[in-house]
Automatic annotation (TrEMBL):
Lineage of producing organism: Bacteria, Bacillati, Bacillota, Clostridia, Lachnospirales
Annotated metabolic or biological route of this protein: Glycan metabolism; pectin degradation; 2-dehydro-3-deoxy-D-gluconate from pectin: step 4/5
Protein name according to UniProt: 4-deoxy-L-threo-5-hexosulose-uronate ketol-isomerase
Binding site for Zn(2+): H205, H207, E212, H254
Keyword Metal-binding in record: yes
Cofactor, free-text remark: Binds 1 zinc ion per subunit.
Protein family: Belongs to the KduI family.
Role of this protein: Catalyzes the isomerization of 5-dehydro-4-deoxy-D-glucuronate to 3-deoxy-D-glycero-2,5-hexodiulosonate.
Organism: Kineothrix alysoides
Substrates-to-products reaction catalysed: 5-dehydro-4-deoxy-D-glucuronate = 3-deoxy-D-glycero-2,5-hexodiulosonate
């Protein structure tokens, strides 16, 4: 597990491009037959991925957590951005398809990942946060019919925003949040930009009470996203490619503009779970 420390906005003002990428960018997440994890001191979030191809992958705590098992004191959200796969939790198997997710509550001990077809492997993207109590483990589907142990994303949690004229026509699909899938602090979902739109989270905002991580995907090999971060009066940018993630501290804006449409997964942890608790930044105030 890679460890990253917290950073001060006063220091970030002096970072080179290389240093910015070193501190905030997470590359090479989806490595065949490996689980890759990055532990950030910023609200203690763990960002990672499990990519089983030829074998089943078992999630372990590692020495870094000083725990008997990974979710002894944590909770976890997972969204699959690859082929069909299976997540086995304490002996129970969950079939997780493309863009389907899971919330796994504190106390789950044995967690493993495998793919249905090695030629089209699952790509399980992971966000994990400290937890104080167990909540039910559930499979989350954007669409479908309700069934035992499965949560279907509610219509009110599929929000269409923006317009083509502003190049930010997008659909937000909220997976883990109060009233739908309960958690201690993790909030997680996915935003898809419609064809012709390239801007996300614009006008931008900060939220001192939560940090956030973005994973950009569904991008062609030659495409990129210019991810904007930093204080509103001291913005910086990081060039991001397909299936790369970015850590966004509470004091930082988090917005992006791509060379073409894309999709991103957002995960938030921190003081509260209020999705709309944000401090908006007027477009004229960005520098």
């Amino acid at each position: 597990m890679e460890l990253r420390t917290a950073v001060s906005p006063r220091d970030v003002k002096h970072y080179t491009t290389e240093r910015l990428r070193e501190e905030f960018l997470i590359r090479d997440l989806f490595v065949e037959d490996e689980i890759k994890l990055v532990y950030s001191h910023i609200d203690r979030i763990i960002t990672g991925a499990a990519t089983p191809v030829s074998k089943m992958l078992k999630l372990t705590a590692g020495d870094e957590l000083r725990a008997e098992y990974f979710l002894q004191r944590r909770e976890m959200g997972v969204i699959n951005i690859g082929g069909a796969g299976t997540i086995i939790i304490d002996g129970k198997s969950y079939q997780v398809g493309f863009k389907e997710g899971m919330y796994i509550g504190m106390g789950a001990k044995d967690i493993s990942f495998e793919s249905k077809d090695a030629s089209c492997p699952a790509k399980f993207y992971i966000n994990s946060a400290p937890a104080h109590k167990p909540y039910p483990t559930v499979l989350i589907k954007p669409e479908g019919e309700p069934e035992s142990g499965v949560v279907i994303v509610k219509d009110e949690n599929k929000v269409e925003l923006g317009c083509l004229e502003d190049a930010n026509h997008r659909v937000i699909c909220k997976y883990i949040l109060p009233g739908q899938v309960e958690s201690c602090q993790l909030v997680m979902g996915m935003t898809k930009l419609e064809p012709g739109s390239v801007w996300n989270t614009m006008p931008c905002h900060t939220h001192d009470r939560r940090m956030e991580v973005y994973l950009y995907f569904e991008m062609q090999q030659d495409a990129f996203v210019m991810h904007y971060m930093g204080e509103p009066s001291e913005t910086r940018h990081i060039v991001m490619r397909n299936e790369e993630a970015i850590i966004s501290p509470s004091w930082s804006i988090h917005s992006g503009c791509g060379s073409r449409a894309y999709t991103f997964i957002w995960g938030m942890v921190g003081e509260n779970q209020a999705f709309d608790d944000m401090d908006t930044v007027d477009m004229k105030d960005l520098m």
